[in-house]
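Figure 2 data, in text form.
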Amino acid sequence: MKNHNLLIVVRFTDNQVTKITFVKKKGGVLKKMIVKDELLSKLRRYFDLNLYEVKLWAALLSRGVSTAGELSDIADVPRSRSYDVLESLEKKGFVVMKLGKPIKYIAIPPTEVVDRVKKNMHANAMEKVKRLDSIKTSPLLVELENLHTNGISLVDPSELSGCLRGRNNIYNHLDLLIKDAKSSINIMTTDKGFMRKVEGLRANLEIAKKKGVKIKISAPLTKENKKIADSLKSIAEIKHNDKIKSRFITVDSNDLVFMMLNDTEVHPSYDLGVWVKTPYFASAMDQMFNHAWGLK
């Protein structure tokens, strides 16, 4: 819609207003731009930007070329912050500063931005991996190991326990325990859990087997997971179990991780496990495991 002093731009996506920009045409100030929070959230997540950065970038994309002051008004970002935020976007490859006065900024095409961000993220990730690899041979790791070894003996055994929220965190901790296993690993799980554990833990189970660790897995064996079970026979003893429905792992009759929820009724992000370091409880669970193992 137009009148002599005002241009109103309205954009629709999926029958919803995603952006409203009020622009005074002759020497006026650009008013606020309204962008759905969902879009801003996605931009922040995918491009690793803060809130001010995504607001100014979205504003500049809608304008093509603009000054920091105009973008500040459109995006509702404080003018005192707009210059340093735009400088940050320039360093990250999202915008280009136009030569001349007043200083204006040009939006880089989104497709090019995606390529740049991907390249930068990869370079940063490789740099972090390189830095972490260098720690393995540095005195820093020795100091950390000494701190952990000497400090752990001062911890009350009752404090060596933890809540593991989310399936990724559960499997990361299981991986850690399996790496340190010395004599035995007993796993009781569901049919789906059996397939997940083989996929996620197989590499370290193989290493444990080579170290002489005895591995037993008790789970319902089905047509769906039978081939997986067959492929694991050189690593672990596997036995069909559909009588006891439980999800737990013991390592060396010392560490125990048990899951609190039925894996068919919970989203992976909300799965919940409890880890305890207690020979008394872990040994009791091993006795239950061995009793179930002997059932026909």
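Caption note: The chain has two domains: 6-109, 159-294.
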